[in-house]
Design goal:
seven-stranded antiparallel beta sheet; about 375 residues; Alpha-D-Glucose-1,6-Bisphosphate, Chain A, domain 4; 2 domains; 11 helices; Alpha-Beta Plaits; 15 strands
Length: about 375
């Protein structure tokens, strides 16, 4: 049978400064560093993305369209970049090596190019490859003129086809319009997101977190699924009603994108439970206030924490903040009901994801392995 065409959002995560970095440095440490950084980025991208293949200094990933929404795709790319920057910072603080590779790694950066379109799967040399005009186009978009506009800043470049598939308003989000001329294909309209600026905003943003010592109640669960998957089911207005007790979730986003400032109306018949997002750190932490439709109800502050557990599953903590003295009795009553309901709902979600696991499992290429010699075996001691 001929292969059937599918649609997906394609993304290439490309290391910038790679060629200059390798010139004249110690290759054993350089190899470990590149493998470590690529591992960091790809792990942060999947899911929702799947790894198609590594291409030298780049990783080619894709997300089948019906498995992702726009904000989730953007969160995945931003989170991958933030993970890369944190890893660079941690390495700088940890390594004692003064070799050229370890010294110059701080000059490395990433860019991300995304496009939406059709592809087919075909076997080449015993392995699966993605093929098609749109696969070619996303690779051609790597050679662009964005650096001239952003003066070397890291960025995410989205084709207009990708923007439309994600159903987002790029102007409201502050993305910058951009044109590329591709041989044979012609003019391609794109939108640029400055990731360096996003990183600085992330570092300067006020944090809201209910820590365990400030919590009146902590509810914990384990689900055998990736953090990004769990995050999506907890935050997506489309997915939440499938497992939580709500007829629908009406979402009002701030600045054109789900995140800090988003207000959700979780509808239960004519009644609505109102949530306001105060902190948004995909795929680690979510803090919000909840107002239940009961007389004299106070806003309840809570934080959801998602961490990777043994075996690749997710550990979930729901931390409910200690109330003011006048609200203690109300929280005790509502808290007990919430504990019962969320336990039942998580059991439903766990069953849903376990049933999907065997259906969606697709073998991916192995991640590059680093020996971490640049951390444990310095070439030049201080």
């Amino acid at each position: 049978m001929l292969p059937q065409s599918e649609t997906a959002c394609f993304t290439i995560a490309d290391i910038t400064g790679y060629t200059g970095f390798l010139a004249g440095v110690e290759l054993d440490h350089a190899q470990d560093i590149i493998a470590d950084l690529m591992d960091t980025v790809v792990r942060a991208l999947r899911p929702p993305f799947r790894l198609a293949k590594f291409e030298g200094d780049a990783a080619f990933v894709y997300a089948v369209t019906d498995r992702i929404d726009g904000p989730l795709l953007q969160d995945a790319i931003e989170s991958a970049y933030f993970a890369f920057r944190r890893r660079l910072r941690n390495i700088k603080q940890s390594t004692s090596c003064e070799c050229l590779a370890c010294t110059n790694m701080q000059q490395l950066d990433f860019k991300f190019v995304s496009h939406h379109g059709e592809f087919i799967r075909q076997k080449m040399a015993g392995r699966e490859e993605l093929a098609g005009r749109d696969v070619i186009l996303v690779h051609r978009l790597l050679k662009n003129t964005v650096n001239e506009r952003l003066h070397g800043h890291a960025y995410a470049l989205y084709s207009d086809a990708c923007i439309r598939a994600m159903d987002i308003d790029p102007v409201k989000q502050g993305l910058v319009g951009h044109q590329e001329q591709i041989d044979i294909i012609g003019d391609v309209t794109c939108w640029v997101h400055d990731l360096e600026e996003a990183w600085q905003t992330e570092n300067n943003r006020q944090r809201y977190e209910v820590t365990r010592d400030k919590a009146a109640m902590v509810i914990e669960f384990e689900i055998a699924a990736a953090r990004a998957t769990i995050w999506n089911y907890f935050t997506s207005p489309v997915l939440r009603p499938r497992w939580r007790a709500a007829d629908e979730v009406r979402e009002a986003v701030a600045h054109g994108r789900r995140g800090v400032g988003t207000v959700n109306h979780c509808m239960h018949g004519k009644d609505a439970m109102i949530e306001e997002v105060l902190d948004w750190r995909p795929f680690d932490l979510l803090t919000l206030t909840t107002l239940v439709p009961l007389p004299d109800a106070p806003k309840i502050l809570m934080t959801y924490v998602f961490s990777e557990s043994t075996g690749g599953g997710t550990h979930i903590e729901i931390r409910i903040a200690k109330p003011k003295p006048k609200d203690e009795a109300f929280l005790q009553k509502v808290g007990a009901v919430f504990h019962e309901h969320i336990t039942h709902e998580v059991a439903t979600l766990r069953q849903m994801l376990e049933e999907q696991d065997g259906v969606t499992a697709i073998k991916e290429p192995a991640l590059p392995e680093s020996e971490h010699r640049f951390l444990s075996q310095p070439i030049h001691e201080l």
